Amino acid sequence: xxxxxxxxxxxxxxxxxxxxxxxxxxxxxxxxxxxxxxxxxxxxxxxxxxxxxxxxxxxxxxxxxxxxxxxxxxxxxxxxxxxxxxxxxxxxxxxxxxxxxxxxxxxxxxxxxxxxxxxxxxxxxxxxxxxxxxxxxxxxxxxxxxxxxxxxxxxxxxxxxxxxxxxxxxxxxxxxxxxxxxxxxxxxxxxxxxxxxxxxxxxxxxxxxxxxxxxxxxxxxxxxxxxxxxxxxxxxxxxxxxxxxxxxxxxxxxxxxxxxxxxxxxxxxxxxxxxxxxxxxxxxxxxxxxxxxxxxxxxxxxxxxxxxxxxxxxxxxxxxxxxxxxxxxxxxxxxxxxxxxxxxxxxxxxxxxxxxxxxxxxxxxxxxxxxxx
Length: 373
Ligand SMILES: Cc1cc2nc3c(=O)[nH]c(=O)nc-3n(C[C@H](O)[C@H](O)[C@H](O)COP(=O)(O)O)c2cc1C
Prior knowledge:
The structure is a single chain. Helix content is 31%, strand content 15%. The chain is α/β, with parallel strands linked by helices. Strands 3-4-5-10-11-12-13-14 form an eight-stranded parallel barrel, surrounded by four helices. Strands 1-2 form a two-stranded antiparallel sheet. Strand 7 and strand 8 form a beta hairpin. Flavin mononucleotide (FMN) binds next to strand 4 and helix 11. Flavin mononucleotide binds next to strand 4 and helix 11.
């Protein structure tokens, strides 16, 4: 049962590293393709994130740590001075609006195309994405990625660390390493995308090694209390078949237990799932849970609030919601007061466009309603 709004833990403060979050609602990372073709965040992105500054924490959308890691057109990046300057405008706007913000670092691996990045994508093994991919010229066949050498692996680990430093320089409170949803780190962990015979493949211990090295390098670069990790156990998006799902994530979580990370973030968090319960027991730090109910279908009418309450009761510390924050800049206030949510519109605006479907969702006061119940 949903708690009465005023007694819900969702609206109680929480500590995260050196941050004090005014509530336990986290805006999940959401790719919206509003950066310039050069990966520079545009001013409209500052408006969008500042509108959502009442979230306990914003995790800004997947952002590319190096040129070859770009997934799709108009994805923001953080490896050039212009990109850092663009992000600084965003973090300043969010801070001025009273918010706190991490940046998600994502290398797409085989989820990429030369028409978007100008480069042949790299991956643990030359196994192409088994589906078409969005490019500036529309959807195209995926290309066979180039297998990363050990030198490529080392330089990519270093690129993540540099990107994390750049993120702090740009004013982010920390970064989230993206090891979920079929991108490069997940490709290393999954059996069907990693056929390597060296120390980065084979057994589960080998397949998690790249993710562990990236997380440790990023933590060493900016301090572990500024670093989160996102995982999606069992998620088959982007053609992933993990193989030993339980063993992968138990081993990964144990391998990172001593680092002192800010948080672990689980997608498809389910309080009734034995693996999720086990990860909660193994992970002594902050656990961010994204229930992801109806992802791929309609958003639940309460935006995921009831699922979030159940996860908090089962031991999660923070609740991440994605689509509800897309369509409700003032989601925290709406959930706190029990006000109805704006429906999500997708008329091609989810992954493309300018202000429409992005910064034009009304808040309660703008909609002419009172902000208190
Ligand atoms: C438009 C869109 C963009 C997304 N972009 C990202 C992303 O950049 N990084 C990521 O880890 N997950 C991404 N996701 C997944 C969301 O973070 C979240 O896990 C998903 O929407 C389910 O949560 P929800 O039910 O609260 O929306 C995206 C989802 C959507 C709908």
